[in-house]
From TrEMBL:
Xref: InterPro entries: Cof, HAD-like_sf, HAD-SF_hydro_IIB, HAD_sf
Keywords, ordered alphabetically: Hydrolase
Keyword Hydrolase: yes
Cell membrane as UniProt keyword: no
Signal peptide: none
Gene Ontology molecular functions: hydrolase activity
Protein name as it appears in the record: Cof-type HAD-IIB family hydrolase
């Protein structure tokens, strides 16, 4: 492959367990950019979460947020595309799931990832690390207000049940018209039908005139699987679930062992 673009997940992949960019990782990204290689964060986060680490990683250009639902330029704020989940689909999904799982709480990401609409009670079980937002700023509205508008990412959460149990319950409903995934965060994430990190990355690469064969992708969670399969070379982090490792061409070191940097250094040295 002729490496032209590095697509990397953040949490559990590029960032270490303290959510930091290590000096070695930063040096590897800088070396890639110096060769003219695009470095693109592809994340479940919104711009508010990217801003927290953008300076450390020197992210200034395109980023894919909400698991590929939209592409935003981190310097000038341009939006290349957005894919929203229709309000009717959100309501149908929420009502069906609430009928089988009592006690659920919901939130909706809107308006380029800048607006976060949380149901009453959601903030009480949220931490800053969950959405990179202070729960004190989340407020809380009646459920109907969470469900009444399109969403870039619809969040499903329970005070006690694990995200994997919620994901299984959602899958068992047999509903269609959306994409659901897990990112390692304490909730299920739902996007518009067909939206994955792979579809978002494909659209960005088309815009940049980059062939998928020249893309290297890094990831560690279920929401990275499609991207790892799509890229010319997919790298799963050590310790990732079996389904993630099976989707990759290579298993790298862990995020706490500069796994991304090690692979990038090797590829640059070979080139």
């Amino acid at each position: 492959m002729t490496l032209r673009l590095i697509a990397t997940d953040l949490d559990g992949t590029l960032l270490d367990s303290t959510s930091s960019v290590t000096p070695r990782t930063r040096a590897a990204l800088d070396a890639a950019r110096a060769r003219g290689i695009h470095v693109v964060p592809v994340t479940a986060r919104q711009p508010i979460g990217l801003r927290a680490i953008a300076g450390d990683a020197d992210f200034r250009d395109w980023a894919l947020c909400s698991n590929g639902a939209y592409a935003t330029h981190l310097t000038d704020g341009r939006m290349l595309f957005t894919e929203e989940l229709p309000a009717e689909t959100i309501r149908t999904l929420a009502e069906a799931l609430r009928a089988s799982v009592p006690g659920l709480l919901f939130a909706s990401v809107r308006e380029g990832g800048e607006t976060f609409v949380a149901q009453e009670g959601y903030a009480a079980i949220a931490d800053l690390s969950d959405h990179k937002r202070d729960p004190k700023t989340m407020g809380g509205v009646p459920l109907d207000q969470v469900l009444n508008a399109p969403s870039l990412k619809f969040v499903i959460r329970h005070p006690e049940l694990a995200p994997s149990a919620l994901f299984d319950a959602l899958t068992s409903l047999g509903l269609t018209g959306f994409e659901a995934t897990l990112s390692g965060a304490p909730f299920v994430e739902v996007m518009a039908e067909g939206v994955t990190k792979a579809t978002g990355l494909a659209r960005l690469c088309s815009h940049l005139d980059i062939d998928r064969a020249d893309v290297m992708a890094f990831g560690d969670a279920l929401n990275d699987v499609e991207m790892l399969r799509w890229a010319g070379h997919g790298v799963a982090m050590a310790g990732a679930d079996a389904v993630v490792q099976d989707a990759a061409d290579e298993i790298g070191a862990s995020n706490d062992d500069d796994g991304v940097a090690r692979v990038v250094e090797r590829v640059l040295a070979a080139g």
